[in-house]
Amino acid sequence: MVLKWLDDTLDDFRILIGSVGYRLEFFTCEQLRDYLQDNNKDIDIVAFANEHIDFLKSEQQNREPYSRTFRNIRNSLTDYFGRSQISINEIHSNMLYSYERFLKSPRTQIRINQFGNKVTTQEKGLSKGGLHAHMRDLRTLFNEAKRRYNNDELGIFRIKHYPFTRYKVGSPPASKSRSFDVEQVIIIRDTQVPKDSRIELARDLFMLSFYLCGTNAVDFYHATSANVINGRFEYKRSKTQGRRQDEAFISIKIVDEAKPLLEKYLGKLNTRYGAYDYLDYALYKGMKGLREITNLEELTLYWARHTFGTLARNDCRMSVDDIGEALNHIDNGHSTTDIYLAKDWGIVDDVQFQVITLIKHCEPNTIKFFNLNPIDSRKSMRVVTA
User: Fold this and answer.
1) H or E stretch covering 204
2) What is the rounded distance in angstroms from the CA atom of residue 122 to the CA atom of residue 110?
3) What are the DSSP calls for 344-367, one per residue?
4) Name one Pfam family in it (predicted).
């Protein structure tokens, strides 16, 4: 019985090796071993997503914020299939059309919070923009799997299908403005919130991001006193650090408006929250409360960055290039020239000064709170502007 099994296995290996043909000479011993062992093994897209997430979060890549994109894809796929093991062969064009309908529909979502408890929420269906981004990211994950498991040069095609040939992700819908005007920024700044609440965290980090040229929450999370040098906040932007020769380094002046907020949170966020995901969730809940208080229905932390850039351009008339410097963007159009130019942080300071001066010179609207009773007041704290 054992000999028969060995003979059959060897015959299968001989057939596989024969199918390789002339390309056999290009295989290393390890590649041939993996090819013989794994050729007919099913690929679990969830397991691959977990490996890809860990890779992006590794010290080598340092792309933790980007990894959350694929965490969302993984979680959504397990919601759709109702299980945590999914063959990549189940990701086909008909499934994608059905999956799209699922994503556009309201649904109950269960997640595990930082305390290990199940949290049930009611989620709205994705918007056109959200749906496009989600399917684009799923396509990216599928392409990464093909890159891992297929090898054109060696004739290895463990993933033999490509569902996005028939299912088209298409072009993103035109995005509407994601910025506030000066008066709305002042409303956020001056809004009364419950002390030591998630809403206070959301308001404070929004304003701190705005004062410091659109710095992202993940960079505040990782920052320590070592990032404060000679009155400047210096760091490498997590989102693009691993993709730029300058490691996305930026130096921003700590203006008076930012000092108390930076002192309040610097070095404390990563001790209060054991992982950035927990801070991200706290901000998600805090922003939800802040939206209710301010009646700014689309308020998120990222709007601070967009608002800073938009005000700098439209109200302060700063150049696009200078705003790009302040936002720590990559300027692909001038990448060759930039090799020969030293960074001038005075440009960033000028943009920052103009935007914050704009806020200083604008008289804030009077904010009034409706108080039905003490309990309802704490729940809603809605505001109007006079």
Assistant:
1) helix 198-211
2) 9
3) -HHHHHHHHHHHHHHHHTSPPPPE
4) Phage_int_SAM_5
